[in-house]
């Protein structure tokens, strides 16, 4: 994931314990950040997003975690570069089954596509997490757009 020239990477070496690195290639600086998923169950629904807010000079990493598809709530972690800490809250989650691995941040909101159907190949909803209010929302993708929907993108000042 990248935003305003900054790059955020999540990786692991042994298949279990992962690490998060935020790299600023212009300053050639790397920040290692503890991954909150290392303390959680392995068989879960887990998604990440990364974004930078130019007005505040702060970037955020969002981690949304659900133990099981049928769980009614999820655990949301937010890392702030200004405090250099993770904060978290449990949030009532509308049903989502498979948040795509691609994400984006737009105006301090993390966005994912919720994929459904056999093998999770049909886009059904856009899931949005408000970083400041810890609020999770889901918006249906229009039926006529679902078949051709591939990913989210920002064009001008709108999300497409």
From TrEMBL:
Coiled coil: none annotated. Residues 8-133 form the F-box associated beta-propeller type domain. InterPro entries: F-box-assoc_dom_typ1, F-box-assoc_interact_dom, SCF_F-box_component. This is F-box associated beta-propeller type 1 domain-containing protein.
């Amino acid at each position: 994931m990248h935003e305003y020239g900054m790059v955020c990477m999540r990786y692991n070496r042994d298949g279990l314990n992962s690490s998060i690195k935020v790299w600023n290639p212009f300053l050639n600086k790397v920040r290692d950040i503890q991954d909150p998923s290392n303390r959680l169950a392995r068989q879960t629904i887990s998604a990440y997003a990364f974004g930078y807010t130019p007005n505040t000079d702060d970037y955020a990493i969002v981690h949304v975690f659900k133990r099981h598809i049928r769980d009614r709530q999820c655990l949301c972690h937010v890392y702030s570069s200004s405090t250099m800490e993770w904060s978290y809250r449990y949030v009532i989650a509308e049903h989502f089954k498979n948040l795509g691995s691609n994400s984006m941040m737009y105006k301090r909101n993390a966005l994912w596509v919720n994929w459904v159907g056999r093998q999770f190949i049909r886009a059904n909803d856009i899931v949005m997490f408000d970083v400041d209010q810890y609020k999770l929302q889901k918006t249906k993708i229009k039926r006529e757009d679902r078949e051709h929907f591939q990913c989210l993108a920002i064009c001008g000042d709108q999300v497409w």
